[in-house]
Amino acid sequence: MTTTRFLTGITTSGTPHLGNYVGSIRPAVRASRTPGVESFYFLADYHALIKIDEPARIQRSTLEIAASWLAAGLDPERVTFYRQSDVPEIPELTWFLTCVTGKGVLNRAHAYKASVDKNTAAGVDPDSDVTAGLFMYPVLMGADILMFNAHKVPVGRDQIQHIEMARDMASSFNHRYGAHFVPPEAVIEETVATLPGLDGRKMSKSYDNTIPLFASREQLKKLIAGIVTDSRAPGEPKETEGSALFQIYQAFATAEETAALREAYAKGIAWGDAKQILLDRIDEEISPMRSRYQHLIDHPEEVEALLLAGAKKARAIATPFMATLRHAVGLRPLTAGPTQAKTKAAKSSTASFKQYREKDGKFYFKLADAKGAVLLQSRGLDSPQQAGKSIQLLQQQGEAALRDLQDQLEPIEDQPALAAALASICATQNI
Ligand code: TRP
Predict the structure, then answer these.
(1) What are residue 302's phi and psi, to 5 degrees?
(2) Ligand 1: which residue has its CA nearest to atom 15?
(3) Domain 4-190+299-324, what fold?
(4) Are residues 369 and 375 in contact, defined by beta-carbon separation less than 8 angstroms?
(5) Closest ligand 1 atom to the C-alpha of 162?
(6) Domain 214-292 adopts which CATH fold?
(7) Ligand 1: residues within 6 Å at CB?
(8) What is the pTM assigned to this prediction?
(9) Exposed end of the chain (fewer CB within 10 Å): N or C?
């Protein structure tokens, strides 16, 4: 069974609100508990630098977002939870991808285009106040995703174009240097409605209509009191359609609870009473997390340690993969050139794959060096095609393919020797 790898980033530019919780944190925490799913969640603090030039705010937001995800039940043992800037391979990969991305493609990115259009409309220079960081935003995001060969990327609709660009970067790179990257797919949560804010528009920082996820109960009460309603008096039947209060309630309540409130609306519940019901319902879900959140905010050293442990896990993948990629593009020791690998003598001294069938009727493959020492041994597979496909993957992707094939393989004994052999096979393949 192969696992599906999910990855998503959260820009560290604000304080999480109920909309973030319902739309992203809660579904992600639930998804991370699904068997067969491997999750990567990270704090996109390099991305935050594009929008924010207040160091204290970046730092504070990083703490608040990390604490929110942890308090909401994200288990850092189970998932890989890290801070983007703790993985230096990401900016390195960003450069590799920059070199295979058309400038014209980036010209068409929505966020950059919106700034240019605004400037043009205002009659100023089209690139006025546009940083190269904003322009390069999609490449950094592509590196986030491709670094870990994520299959699925849960994002909001506004991010779909970025995922498509990451797919293009993957295929441009693969075309030039061999199949190193998996093309990622966007996952849009269709079932999660966007939460309305206090004024009825989408809950968003830019509308200043948010309810912070970890507001105290008193603050929560005050904010809920400010949710827009119509002027119907107690006893008058009320519409659920278009009622922000009702929609927010629905995001937290069970189907039965929602039906009960719908009935109460029809019977003319007073707005004050409906607001009390909403307050109690949200508080019921959030209050058990509040003390954990507060604890983490008061102990940043604990969050820091968790993030560093997460970065270590992430780099256990990123560091060897980046070594393979460096080799693939030609940033390699002068002694490991393709000309050498191409010559007959050199070739016969490299490792090679063998495919065979055992008495158990199963199909096997192995990689042995020139002296016959086994570097990699497969388990019994059901078909020769399966063995052939795995060999091909190893030839094309080198060490990067090991992760996806781990269920087919016996434990690896000499990882450095295997890595070197695969790197040289991969280099010969990709000339
Ligand atoms: N751009 C994303 C957003 O604003 C955040 C992000 C950065 C991201 N890198 C990512 C999301 C990689 C998914 C995958 O929402």
Answers:
(1) -70, -40
(2) 10
(3) Rossmann fold (3.40.50)
(4) yes
(5) 1
(6) Tyrosyl-Transfer RNA Synthetase (1.10.240)
(7) 7-9, 11, 44, 47, 141, 144-145, 153, 155, 159
(8) 0.78
(9) N
